[in-house]
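Re: export button greyed out
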Amino acid sequence: MANDVWALAEINGGKLASISLQLASKAAELANTLGGASAAVALGTNTQSAAADLGACGVQTVYASDGSVYDEYLTQPHVETLATLIQQHQPRLVLFGSTNYGRDVAARLAARLGLGIEYNVGDVAVENGEVMMTVPAFGGSQAVKMAFQGEGTRLLGARPNAFPTNRVGGTANVENVPAPSAPANGAKVSGPFGTEGAAEAGHLGKAPDGHDIWLPAASRAKLEEAQIIVSGGRGVGGPQGFAQIEDLAGALGASLGASRAAVDAGWVPYAHQVGQTGKTVKPTVYIACGISGAVQHKAGMGTSGLIIAINKDKDAPIFSFCDLGIVGDLNVVVPQLTALVKQRKGS
Amino acid sequence: MGHPAIWPTGDSAIGSVIFGVLLVAAWVAFLLRIRKLVNLLRLGQPEIRTDHLGDRIKFFVLMVLGQRGVLRDPLPGIAHFFTFWGFIIIQLDALNLWAIGFHFSLPIIGSRVFAALLDFFVFAAFVALIIFAFRRLVLRPKQLQSQSHGPMDAFIILGLIALVLVSLFFFEVFAYIATRGEAWTPFGALVGEAWKAMDLGTAAALMSVSWWANVLVVLAFLIYIPNSKHLHLLATPFNVFFRNYNPKGALQIIPNIEEREDYGVHKVSQFTWKQLLDGYACTECGRCNSVCPALATDKPLWPKEIILAVKEELFAAGGMMLVSAQEAEERAKTQPMVGGLIAEESLWACTNCGACVEICPVSIEHVQKIDDMRRYLVMEESSFPQEVVPLFNNLERNANPWEISNDTRADWAKALNVPTLAEDPDVDVLYWVGCMGSFDQRNQKVATAFAKVMQHAGVRFGILGPEESCTGDPARRIGNEYLWQMLAQQNIEVLNGYGFGKGDSEAAGSADKPAIAADAHSGPDGSGDSHSYNGVGVPPGRAYNVKTVVATCPHCFNTIKNEYPQLGGDFEVVHHTEFIDRLISSGQLKVPQGFDLRKLTYHDPCFIGRWNDVYDEPRRVLNVINSNGVTEMRRNRNRSFCCGGGGGRVWMEEKIGKRINNTRVQEALETGADAMAAACPFCITMFEDGIKAVEAQDRFGVEDIAEILARALEAQPVAAGGASATSSSPEANA
Amino acid sequence: MKIVICMKETPSTTAEKRFGPDMRLERHKEDAIINPFDEYTIEEGLRQQEKHGGETIVLCMGPATATDTIRKALAMGTDRGVLVTDPALAGSDAVATARVLAAAIQKIGFDLVLFGSAAADSYGGIVPSAVAEFLDLPLLSFATKLDIDGGTAKIERQAEIGYNAVETQMPAIVSVMKSINEPRYPSMKGIMQSKKKPIDTMSLADLGIEAGQVGAGASGEKALSAEKITTQRKGEIYIGNDGAAERVVAFLVEQKVL
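Workaround output, generated via the alternate export path:
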């Protein structure tokens, strides 16, 4: 009881998000270390299938609550169910993802039950029976070691990909929990929407022969919010070259960026421009293809988490502020990279 | 002309009375109009334009009486010279003709000598008139095709002038016949001799007709001129007299900015009276349009139309203000000047290159007006290109245009052993690096090259590092005067704190602190002349005074030199091209002659060229290091064509028309040069982009003069003039 | 419509950041700015006010010196400011902060409460949802567009995959993303007028909150130590086309991106 570790799974429209497996794997490992039981909570539709996947990652129990109310309303139904479960079972630690979904749910839960909460955790370790967390601060320039204080259940928000997925095999004991009724005053999802914003993010403009070029995945994040950006510059060579950049972005689920030179040349619309006179972005990963990296471009992306540069000019300024620089021909490297990413994501 | 039978108004008084009534009526109409024009000017803000009185008079004589401005363009220039003087002589003669109407003649003007002079100028003006008509009808230069006026106005005036000349000439001819050759008018006499057979009565009658035709046309002129575009005939001399005597490169300050209630200009009454007078003075010659880089690349900016729009607005809105302030306020709401007659996008298209101001023959100041209206848009309306917002925010927060910590400003110089003033305040020269040199990797190379040049020459110099803030130039040029004042004040405090204020430099320059380390001092001593940069005296044999600020960025240079004095900052500041030139000519820096074998062209940056008249220094340096000397572009020196980056344009998107930088790169390529030398970080940035855009990067490049020089020096490490390579670091000289 | 705009004061994004001995951020007044995410919040509040009328109130919890930062929000055009400041608040965690803000919002009264999606110093994104809980209202989170039509607030929301339309009854609490608008630059008039606009301060006592409920002592977690990670980029350079794609994938896996 006192040392139980749970994972809050994330189900979007009946599909289990990959972070759920990372959290479940870690929950199983931590519970083992602390000498408690491990569990996962699956709220949404298609939870039985999710429970099987979560069990395979080593959790002993899955609290599954199946109901369309979880898809129809933001946050509140999830918090209702979780609050009841936590009060019933008093786990020591609940792992959630530092995602939009995870943060909304955990914050509300913490406020309702008075629970301690930590987020953006990059690593967790148990030292002398204490849970120790490493949290990056100030845009990653410092790492802060944190511990919980006080009593009661603690909520721990992990960064996506902070923990590896560990398919140890196994089957969880599924406990079905009833779904709550719709909240009297809730945030109701009135439907998916993919027209206006997605059009801006997905429309690449017109090819020289006049036909529209669209990103294959029309639902990618707008540049300002994107976690991964693949960006092309003059080195891409032309609108056709941008098709390769677009393929890579598609494979990574990334948004498409461009330097001013590429926009000025008319290869990409202005909405994609990154830099001093375009958009300022701060993704986790910025992949610059054929961009030299003059200060006007750096101004828009210099604070990105990781910068990967592909450029054939070894003297390009961007190689002095990247994390990984590839001095090579993007026409060769980018298609290979796209194929490898697709292969890996498919596995 | 004493014979009573030939008074053109006849023997009785009736003719004289009729003429008298007409004369008075015309003058009343003229003076009423002038009064209104003056009252309209008085709507403008006060501005002192009577400083430098001696210079003003001298310039007035040269430009107005000597017609020097228009003579730069020979064919229309000479024609204009004769029209102008013909006009003056004819006006003087008109006085005599009027006197004749009252049956008497004036001394001097009525004399035979004057009559001969008149005769010559009537002929010359007539020839000039034919040249003008030929130019307008046949040559039709682009700048004369006005946006706002048809050619009618021009033909009315040419026709009227022709009438004056013809009537005057026939008056001479018939007077010659009627008085039997008493007048002394060679051309008139020529025709008069041919028609000698005419009887006296006919001649007198025709003389009378000619006289009436002439006085009536001249009186019509009197009324027509101040009511037409030819108002410039009256206003131009005043405009030239009241021209700007502040430093050319300085925009006017908004004093007490925190206590004001309005900022910049959106109503004509917010312009100064002199800015309004510019509108009267505009001759619509269109030279400004013909040199505007924005217009040349199809952007919606016509400098002439801005000036004329201000004039049109003055007549409309200002005219209403004279009648009813309330109605004028109402009108301002429904028909604003900015956004109405003057489109916002026109104002944002300007690169502040100053080509229009430089070429204007009648001393009109276009750029100040454009920036005044930008000030209104930025500070009152917060309406400006969205992409500029990060610039303003970063200048406020980080003292540089980017989201980069200003603490890292000196990082570029780490490997060079250049001290900051905080580390070593006891230096002779402060190198003002600027944001581009400090943070932009391309321009860090320029800063590094210039630092090496100074080390080579044994100059004891330092930088400010994190204590240097953006000078504020981009903010000011875009219209954010407030931000400029904040940044400028900060910099002035820092510079004064290190003793760079001019008041301090006297003390600092005392004998115990020689300007140049003794061993670096073996130039041809005592050769005589003291040299000067822009009027600042430097002792013979020395390249610079102590406590000199040297900037590689023309924009930093211009604002510190010309604009910081408005806030009490008075510094000796030179551009690095001037500084290098002085290092070489004083003998402190020996440079391998003709080291660079490429064919080089040179681009004059607007902010050292046109705004500060630094043309020769960079060329002299290039002529030493380069074996071929400078191959000039079609447009060079004060006619140089902007890179497109000034006036804050480098911080904005260029979405309309062709790109200015590409246009200039093409022009450079036309010279057949291998590379372009430049002297401004923004020009370099614009041209690097332009060279790639026209795909010339494999055969053409752009380099700062300091880079070319540093390469030459590195190839010949044995230093000149005693500043040996081993003692070239500041430490070695300390 | 009464619009409460919640704003945080954060250190400048380029300022040197250090923890003090108490493991709290050392704050230097001159480096303080409006949390960059909140510039979008303020802009959205102003745009809603322009559409629907009413009043915009900037609410900030922070040190007494935060009035300078509030003035910047007032310069953008908001009507008045409220600063919740109390020595006991120092070291409050996200939940305690939410408790205080909720009480202040309640006291001010509201039709619409706006938050940024996170703060640039903590990147938590926890506070808006916790405030919604304390106020017992739903949260329209991560909005990329906000429309208020009569009694309904409707957003376009960036979900984990794609976008959703989400709506709720007024009064509403909304957190906004950067792509929702382009924040304005304050005009000179705005700056001058901001000097005359009122900023009220509230203490814990004014809000009826016990000091023990907030501050470092009440926090559910505490920082033990901070280690400066080198901010230098890794700067690994791989030359050649062969194996380059493999190296990028391996790097992305090492960095836990893939």
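Chain C has a mean pLDDT of 90. The button fix ships in the next patch.
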